[in-house]
Amino acid sequence: MKLATIVGARPEFVKLEPVSRALRPRHEEIIIHTGQHYDYRMSAQFFDELAIPAPNYNLEVGSGTHGVQTARILEAIEPVLMKEHPDWVIVFGDTNSTLASALAAAKLQIPIAHIEAGLRSFNWSMPEEINRVVTDHLSQRLFCPTKTAQRHLSREGITQGVELVGDVTYDILLHLQPRLAAQVQALLPALDVAAHAYFLVTIHRPLNTDDPVAMRNIAHALNRLEMPVVFPIHPRTRKCLQGYDITWGKHVRFIEPIGYIAMLALEQVAYRVLTDSGGIQKEAFLLGVPCVTLREETEWTETVESGWNVLVGSRWQAIIEAVQLPKPEPPQHNPYGAGNAATRIVQSLEFPGRTR
Ligand code: UD1
Known about the structure:
Low-confidence stretches: none
Bound molecules: uridine-diphosphate-N-acetylglucosamine
Shape: globular
Strand content: 5-15%
Oligomer: single chain
Structural class: alpha/beta
Strand order of the largest sheet: 3-2-1-4-5-6-7
Distance between the termini: 19 Å
Number of helices: 16
Largest sheet: 7 strands, parallel
């Protein structure tokens, strides 16, 4: 088979790695990078360190409003899909690249496989919620990471072509785990922090970054924490913060966006992780580090139900209370599968009969 895997933003590169690794020995893969993320640290760094094959196409669409970015991808990807005419288009998650690629493929009647299907926040102010719902309804094969995701699809009337395979980010985490200890040893002295004695913070969601009141509240909480705060800063967040008058405590250390292995290493030995990212909530859970989520809801509800994740929004008192909670009991089971999601996806795509 010929499969086109389409990526554009940081979390998609991470999900691509295990899928590409499972696909390549058996099938032809065309990687299409939309160019949604383009800085070295946001894009090529991931291909380099994870040894993902270089994309066959880079559409170089860059940044823009949601409409502009989605439209540029749609326009640029159509001729590529017409030329390559793959048997499957594979899209990941919920970015503008996901939605635009799925739309282009659907119009060309190329079957779509959606990896990380069925997630819902039920918050329609998030661009990702729009992207994932539409992509799910356009897809012929829907690979769910969790039972909850499968249930959401069923409630929307999607029961055919749906498979519960586990989460591909657990696959890559297991793959990289042997390399984390060396990263920890190299990174912590450079950051001047000790294992289990710092907070790791990431913030990039518009609901926080674009709201000065939310960012001031979060800063107020971070400034009161009694351990160093390591804060790899997304370019969107950096730009937004330049416009806000916020004084940060000396213990808050901003660093440039880091690679994936370094990020996992810093998560693994953090005292607590504070984030508004979806992927990082789940990684913290899988690495056994309590997470405080700077949002009011999450798609990864299992992390909250097990007590390993607390939703606090941008309320500063709630943030401070949540980081003081004791470490919960180890979870009874892993809701994110067996670490073989990518292999199961590739095997499944070899059976056309399962298609919706
Ligand atoms: C996108 C995804 C989000 C994902 C996130 C991971 C959508 C709607 N959102 O959000 O789901 O969690 O990626 O990072 O697709 N920028 C740079 N250099 C880059 C990329 C971005 O400077 O390489 C800056 C630009 O100012 C840009 C802003 O960051 O306008 C936001 O980038 P964008 O791709 O629009 O969305 P993200 O916030 O990264």
